[in-house]
Amino acid sequence: MFPREKPFVLDLEPYQEDLVSTLEQGNREKTVLILLASVQFAHVMDFMVMMPLGPQLMRIFSLNTSEFGHIVSAYGISSGLAGLLSAPFIDRFDRRTFLKFCLVGLFAGTLLCGLAPSAPILMIARCVAGFFGGILGALVQAVISDVFPPERRGFAISRVMLAFSIASVLGVPLGLLMANKLGWHAPFLSVSGLLLALYLAAQFRFPSLTGHIDPSVTVKSRISQMFHFFSEKNAILGFLATIFIIMGQFMVIPFISPYLVNNLGFPENNLPLIYLFGGLSSIITMPFIGKFTDKLTPHKTFPVGIVVSIFPLFILTHLTTSNMFYILSVTSLFMICMGGRMVPFMSLLTTVVEPRKRGSYLSLTASIQSLAQGAAALSASAIVSTGVNKELIGYGTAGWLAALFSLITLYLGFQIAKAAANSAQQKHSKMPSQPQPTLE
């Protein structure tokens, strides 16, 4: 007879501590990711909902296109300045403390937007909201880098970026419906409520993050690093390309709703459909654009994206019909192309500087992008005027300028690709390599 074998028992005791630690880490990552995505959603909603409300705000506050453009530009300019001013200080505090501080500021600015009794107060409120919203945008990226390792960072960023699509598809149309039913105050007050809930969630659920704090790194050294980029040719090319591609979009975007309503007689109650169909179209097409960008390289897909995007840009700014199907088709194509050309552009932008400088450079570029949004809205408001019957005059000219800026971006994109190719050739030149250390 064979001896009876002992029953197999899995002893988890030696691994129990590691298992608990892994589960705690996973729960912390999940909590942080949900909160960051919610913060991003609130920030995007706060920025985006202003533009579709144009027809209502212009009517209620008796604003002309120039005055409305100034209010729209206030958020972007304030956001960009905040990003530049906060960059040297953002890594000197506990992430949770800084997050709560920014949420309070954005809550105050957004609440003031919803309660603003006049256009000047609304302008001040947009500046306050934009300032703290700009800091939050940079802080979200910093927290992702702290919490998620490099091999999981892309996953985290993609999930947080979904907030933009959700805001486009659900948030903005819902906000417009609320504005149509309850008044223009409703979207801002709703976002204020969401920000208050996020503050409480950050207080009780967001972990304290202090591992990034390095007392040896001074504010002076961080400012020097920022200014160093303005002496590098490739970095300057990237900054210029960012400015012109954003100018090529936001010369047109802020006045889409007023143009459709005042010039073409598009029903104001149907404006949510534009953002609903446009957002859904973008969500469907973005993954395919991303795959083509990875497969064909951004150097090849970016020029195609720029050239193709000029057609809906021109058509949208020269519409002469109020046909619902035609307008929804053109605006959806416009949103697809505007988002579609940004995918290869952002990928191309990552080749501008070496990897060890990439994070700082992209953070600085994000601030310049916000400033460009504000500058574009400001420039468009100087070109587009209001006619006798409240119609917009000069919107077609703004479209031509946007197309010109897009072509300038095309040229700068070629220069960036050329610089990246030269850098790659130098990196792979047949120079004698240094002997590698052995394990002995």
Question: TL;DR of this structure?
Answer:
The protein is mainly alpha-helical and 440 residues long. It has helices at residues 16-48, 54-60, 65-86, 95-115, 119-147, 150-182, 185-205, 219-228, 233-250, 256-264, 271-296, 298-316, 324-349, 355-383, 395-427, and strands at residues 385-386, 392-393.
Q: How much of the sequence is in beta strands?
A: under 5%
The assigned CATH architecture of the largest domain is Up-down Bundle
Radius of gyration: 24 Å
Name of the top-level CATH class of the largest domain = Mainly Alpha
Average per-residue pLDDT, rounded, comes to 80
Shape: globular
CATH superfamily of the largest domain: MFS general substrate transporter like domains
Report strand order across the widest sheet: 1-2
In the predicted model, the low-confidence regions spanning at least 5 consecutive residues are: 15-23, 428-440
